[in-house]
Design goal:
Blueprint lengths: L22 E6 L5 E5 L5 E3 L5 H9 L20 H18 L4 E5 L5 H8 L3 E6 L2 H7 L9 E3 L2 H7 L3 E7 L8 H11 E12 L4 H6 L13 E2 L2 H8 L3 E14 H9 L3 H13 L7 E15 L1
Parallel strand pairs: 4-5, 4-7, 5-6, 7-8
Antiparallel strand pairs: 1-2, 2-3, 3-9, 8-11, 10-11
Helix pairs in contact: 2-3, 5-6, 9-10
The structure holds zinc ion.
């Protein structure tokens, strides 16, 4: 978490509704950060939040993908690589049903694990990420040295590339200007192109069950949290939703135990007991609900 003073924090409104729409307070967190909910559309909005430049600085720091801490970025992105790859493979199988080949861009490509799986399925792959460390790793993918940009989706637009599929997994909730961002996605997509989006779902059972301990109430990273209805609102009129699914993910036992332990002190005691009695479970891979929604949308 970057050092931040109260006076730097910025108040946000609903990006999907008319200016001036009322927000109701939902949860408050340390250092003055809080989530509010739009009365009109139900979108969860981090307000106050970090100014965009400060957030970008934070994602660019080397610790983002290896923070060693479940509250910041990714605790150990590389150690969990087999789980990420397997999850991406499953998700790409869904993409393949709607667009079985062509050029694919992964926005927020991290270390390039999704791109590697997509390449194995025959896609012509490109990626972009704001983290220089992530970009350096993704460029090691054979033949991809000049296909990975350091920057944002605007950097890709400036290159003149157009694609058939845009993937963004665990990215949309970080985007400060969602409508502008989707506008650029529409510009980059060829006619009939597919947008594949995975983002935390405020309509999920996991959110209802976890309350204020929901893992996706992630401050200061997740600036907006959506459900199926407000995603449809954000996508319209440039995109038409063609399918939605409840997202699942592969995770090692220790990762899932950390998430469970964070829910309640009693859960923490139970989880630690199970880990003590069955230590092998920590390294076992599970396929579980992630509390996110998968959306496939076609460019109109
Ligand atoms: Zn709204």
């Amino acid at each position: 978490m970057p050092d931040v003073t109260q006076s730097e924090l910025q108040f946000a409104g609903c990006p999907l509704c008319e200016a001036g729409t009322s927000l109701d307070p939902l949860y408050t967190f340390d250092r003055g950060f809080g989530y509010k909910v739009c009365r009109e559309c139900g979108l969860y909005i981090l307000s106050p939040r970090l100014p965009f430049d400060r957030a970008r600085e934070y994602y660019r720091s080397g610790e983002y993908y290896q923070s060693g801490n479940h509250d910041i970025g990714y605790a150990a992105y590389e150690r969990d690589a087999p789980c990420h790859r397997r999850t991406f493979r499953k998700r790409l199988e869904m993409v393949r049903k709607f667009h079985p080949g062509g050029k694919l861009l992964d926005v927020g490509c991290g270390y390039g694990y999704l791109l590697e799986e997509a390449r194995n399925m025959g896609y012509d792959c490109f990626g972009v990420d704001v983290s220089p460390e992530a970009v350096a790793r993704a460029r090691k993918l054979p033949g991809h040295e000049d296909r990975i940009w350091e920057g944002t989706i605007e950097t890709v637009r400036a290159s003149g590339l157009t694609v058939d599929v845009i993937c963004m997994t665990d990215l949309f909730e970080h985007i400060y200007e969602p409508r502008d961002f989707l506008g650029v996605c529409a510009e980059l997509l060829n006619p009939g192109g597919i947008l594949f989006l995975v983002t935390p779902d405020t309509g999920s059972l996991l959110r209802r069950f976890s309350g204020r301990h929901w893992v996706s109430l992630k401050v200061p990273e997740h600036v907006y949290l959506y459900n199926k209805q407000n995603l449809s609102r954000a996508l319209s009129p440039r995109f038409k939703m063609v399918a939605t699914f409840r997202a699942k993910q592969y995770g090692y036992g220790y990762f899932l135990f950390e998430r469970l332990a964070a829910l309640h002190p009693i859960a923490r005691v139970a989880v630690r007991t199970v880990q003590y009695v069955f230590p092998a479970l920590d390294r076992k891979m599970f396929y579980v609900t992630s509390g996110s929604i998968i959306v496939l949308a076609r460019k109109e």
